Amino acid sequence: MIKVYAHSLGCPKNMVDTENILSGLKEHYFAVDRPFEADVVLINTCAFIRPAVEESLETIFSAAQDVKGLSQRPLLVVTGCLVSRYGTGLGREIPEADMFVPIARQAELPGKILYRLGRKVEAEAPGVRHGPFKSFAYVKISEGCNNRCAFCTIPSIRGKLRSRPEHEVIQEAGHLIDQGAGELVLVSQDSTAYGRDLGCRRGLSGLAEKLAGLEGLLRLRIMYLYPSGLDQGLLARLAELGPPFVPYFDVPLQHAHPELLKKMGRPFQQDPMEVIRRIRNYFPGAAIRTTLITGYPGEEERHFRELLEFVRQARVQHLGVFPFYPEEGTRAAGFPGQIPDEVKNERQRLIMQEQKRVSREYLKGFPGESLDILVDDPHPEWPGLYTGRAWFQAPEVDGLTYISGPGVGPGKMVRAEITASHDYDLEALA
């Protein structure tokens, strides 16, 4: 048996890639918690923006330091976006690593690992991911992106849109449910584009309809819904689904001013309130998440004030804000009107300050109500306390519901009374 320490950085799409690589080792491996316990250290990197690159490098060097001096040093394998962005020439900069594998060749990794370790066994083709999945699992429905936003490195890293065949997604989803995943979270770079490259007219809605009919599925959540693809036809078809589909809309808007959206090269360059109103017309109680960028080249004070006013008016439940990073290889890195870092960061702070008030006021309405909470994990410090999520809380990116009481356990959906609210989290008693 091969002992593997795996560390996946970045987005859920990377997590799915890591699980696929491990599935290729099938019964030939088991997971360990620390690098120095492993035969293989697998690091799946992110390189979307500068902090992600820095975190990936820090993780690699930290793992290399952990195993330095061992009499039998584990195989250090680096894969993912860092390798796809900067190439296998990284070996000159990071000699501590034994193998660099880009995203496009990850299917070969299980075989490469077994070969390097001298194991005379056949690797499995990645496909069937192994759990157990306590409460949720990500399902990647497509790879790559056909949008060409001026600030984004993803198309150069992951290539053009490549949708997975519908039957393959449904088969994997059924397998994940059988392994205990009560909630499936669909992820991609642009979920509204699913199926376009396959010639499907109703790709995403057709897939969602079939997934919603799977036995044992408690929740179906879709992330990365581009505003340009979230038209009335798609919303109307999603509104017909009902449970287990949850009316949670993750819509990356990036800015609120049409001038800035045009400079960004976004597919949607209109007033983002139009999208918000469209969603709420079909789903009056919808939970909405979005992401915004501050300090984009040419963002004047008037642009930022409109962005801040949008946050006040839209009152979306969840919001992530990132200062602009002039990423090497993107058009935006060479644009005039670059903004000083201190201005970007201050604008980010002001928006998150406003969003904290929005979130606090939204959650204040829940104490006294009863909600279904999907339980994720035991609290690491308080016996009998668990972390879970209401329908409007997506895993790993939103707030949590802290829950205790009879019958509460990982993977269970329990009815609970909300007893308290905070800025981003809830407390509940089953």
Largest sheet: 6 strands, parallel
Number of strands: 18
Overall mean confidence score, pLDDT = 94
Strand order of the largest sheet: 6-9-10-11-12-13
Strand content: 15-25%
Helix content: 25-40%
Through-space gap between termini: 41 Å
Gyration radius, rounded: 22 Å
Total helical elements = 13
Tag the structure with descriptive keywords.
430 residues, alpha/beta, six-stranded parallel sheet, 18 strands, globular
Plain-language structure description:
This protein is an alpha/beta fold and 430 residues long. It is built from 13 helices and 18 strands. The protein has helices at residues 12-25, 50-67, 81-86, 90-93, 109-116, 154-158, 166-178, 203-212, 232-239, 258-264, 273-282, 301-314, 341-363; strands at 2-8, 29-31, 40-45, 75-80, 99-101, 136-140, 142-143, 162-163, 183-187, 219-222, 245-250, 287-294, 318-323, 370-378, 386-389, 401-404, 413-421, 426-429. A six-stranded parallel β-sheet has the order 6-9-10-11-12-13. Helix 8 links the parallel strand 9 and strand 10. Helix 1 (12-25) packs across helix 5 (109-116) and helix 12 (301-314) packs parallel to helix 13. The chain starts with a strand and ends with a strand. The mean pLDDT is 94.
